[in-house]
Amino acid sequence: MKLSTILTYLMSLLFLSLILNACVHDPIFIDDPVKKDTTKQDTTKQDTTVKQPRKCDPDTVYFESEILPLLQSGCAKSGCHDASSRREGVVMDGYKNIINTGRVSPGNASRSKLYTVLISSGERMMPPYSGGGPFTQDQIDLVKKWIDQGAKNNKCVQSSCDTAQVTFSASVQPILKTYCQGCHNNNLPSGNVNLQGYTNVKTAVDRGRLMGSIRHKNGYSAMPQGGAKLDDCSLRKIAIWIKDGANNN
Q1: Closest CA to 67 of 98, 89, 90
Q2: pLDDT of 8-37, one tens digit each?
Q3: pTM over 0.85
Q4: CA 26 to CA 9: how far, in whole Å?
C-alpha cells in the first residue's frame, strides 16, 4: 500500500473521530411547565387559608362600618380625643387606640368606661349633640352591643345595596348621624355647616357642596374629615335622595 494511501486513510479516521466527538455533550433538560406534586395532597379542595369576604350578619355590629365612624365623628375631634388633643390621655381615632385606652372590656359593656360615660349622668360626655350626650339612644345601644359581642375589629362586605325606597328618615339621616353630625350639628356647626335635622341638611344640599365633599372631589373639603370616604352604598343612597328632590320623607 502506498504511503499516500495510508496517510489518506489515517486522515479520514481522524476527521471522523472529530465529528463524532463534536456531537457529544451534556444532555439538555427542558423544564416541565407542569410541576409534579410531591406532597400527595388533594389539591382539588378549596384553599382554606384564603379568607373569603364575609357577608353582613344583621345581628352583628361591625367596628369598621358602624362603630369607628361614630367614634371618629363624636369623639376623635380637636379638643377631645384626637391624636393631637389626647384629652385625659385618650385617643379614639382607630381600633388599636380605642382598645389601648383600657376603657373597653370586651364582652362586658357594663364594665367598659367607653359605654358608662355615655349613660352616666355624672360623667356623661357632652356635646356634640344638643339635648345632652354625644350619641342618640340607638347609637349608645349600638356601642353596648358591639362591646358585649367582644369588641371585635371586624368588618363585612355588603352583598347588595337596597335603593328601592330611599328616604331621608330611613336612609339618609342615619348615615349623616353616624358619619357627620359629630362635627356638624346645632352646637358645633363646623365650617358653618349644620347637618342636624332636615332643614339644615336641605340647606347644605342646596348650596351644592354636600356630594362633592362626601365623594372627595377636587376643590371640595373631603368629608368625613380625616376619615375614609363613605362606602359606595351610602353614597348611592344620598345621591338618589338628592336626585329625587331631597324631600323630607
Answers
A1: 98
A2: 666 665 554 544 444 343 433 333 344 444
A3: no
A4: 31
